[in-house]
Protein 1
Amino acid sequence: MATEAAAISQPMHQEHVGPSYVAIFIYLAILTGAELVVYALGFSQVLKIGLLVALALAKATLVAMYFMHLAFERRGLWIIAGTPLILVAFCYFMLRPDLSHRSWAHHDEAQVVGEHEHPSPLSPEARGLPPQQGGADAQH
Amino acid sequence: MSEAAAAHADPNVHGAVADQHEPSLTPDTSGKLGMWAFLAGDAMTFGAGIAAYGALRWQNVNWPDPADWLGITTTAVMTFILICSSVTMVEALSSIQRGDQGKFRLWMFGTMIGGLAFLVMQAFEWHHLIWGEDLSIKTSLFSATFFILTGFHGLHVTGGVIYNTTLWIRNLTGKLPQNKAYLVEIAGLYWHFVDLVWILIFTFVYLI
């Protein structure tokens, strides 16, 4: 009886067997460095965004799985943790139709939607700098 | 019911065992479930903010290049500091779970310092933008979204530093023994979430 009680009273929270926290820190530091390298190398916008988002998600996953111990938690918590990701993705894709005229329309001049009548105070011209090369689309 | 049996049954006491018929959703402690539920809601708030930032930026052809206004190097250092503070936080948890109070205080102090360093650097950045570059929340969509996102995150970091400091003081006064290590685990969840959100903000606001 006493043995059973002792066995039952073993803490549910056992020492996790997995990568060390120092190893996770090194992976995070490497991924952060990789992000800065991608940023500095000047890839095309699509490639840059894709790589940076992938690296950021990898870092976020490492933090969630090993620092927040999600990898060792019951599956029920995965539902709580994962639901916001699904809902935010849903939110973004619900906004996409409002942006479709920018992604599909093609004009030689700058798009008028969202463009102010007067130059933005942050535009190079308003700040006394030479105009940006390549047109408005080159900014993004 | 004896004291030991009551502690055994109390889900908030470290070492308590869940009833075998308890659903799999329930974690070791109700506090942990509560924190996860809170973080899920907070993740929605930040997620909606970042999604809105992305939508506004995509739609606005006048959006300035963040590199023209924001210090990428400084922010990279801030990101590294926050990652380090996440490591010290998880080491603090590991220490108190082992019963090493001295190591816990050391690691938790490191976490507090990391959080404070982040806030100081963010304050310098804001000071430079507001007084040096004459940028305010009213200047443009870029500045509005920048200050709102980073300001909201900064508030979370401030709350986290206060939270961690409170636990550190409780430990100093002997009110945070080893069997209450779950309290540090719950605080750790919040702190790692703050770090996770900053990883995303750094990428979407500063680098992209």
Protein 2
Amino acid sequence: MAYNLIQTQTVSTAVPSITFSSIPQGYTDLYLVISARSSFATGSVSDLYVYFNGTTTGYTSRWLQGNGASASSSTSTAPADPLVTMANVAANTFNSVSVYIPNYAGSANKSYTLDDVTEDNSTTAYQRIVASLWSNTAAITSLTVSEANGANLVTGSTASLYGIN
Amino acid sequence: MTDILQKLIIDCSTGEATYVPLTADEIAEREAQAAAWAEQQAADATAAQAAADKRTAVLSALAKAAGLTVQEVTDALA
């Protein structure tokens, strides 16, 4: 198994989303790595959405989450939603997310997994794992990471896409 | 002056990264997405509180029936 870097990009100005388009179809799986921080500063958590081909419907997921004090679990129909480090926690900290998408170019529905930690060296930090299904048979040709609640991904947020063969 | 919202698009076939202003439709979709997110957060919080309340009630009932404290029951089930 070899991980081949397709593209990596660090945002130089705050953006609501990052999209990888024209994804090559010659690999077996995709692996996405995200290091991001949100401009959102209200409450304790914010989410990212990860969705395919510009489509935000057809997703179902189950996530497990813990923060060191409590654990929880829930289902969601939002595009797989990792938590993101927020603007109201320690400066210069970012979350760390990895998404594994097998058989992305195939004609079956797309099941994939995601794990995530918010990084914060002074207060509560969260960890989340997500099992997701995108009920769509189209090959994945684009992939978007967006801030879920209308805020931005701040400067320095990075996304890297790997092809696996 | 209002900041122009831009999205970042990376074309994997060329390696070119481009910042593109959001269209009016994309801004509207983003606002709808944010509203849905807030609604989901509120629903999750309500469900979590209901689960916590139910757990507390069950632990209290068990403790009372067994002649133990809630903490003793909690520790035994941990």
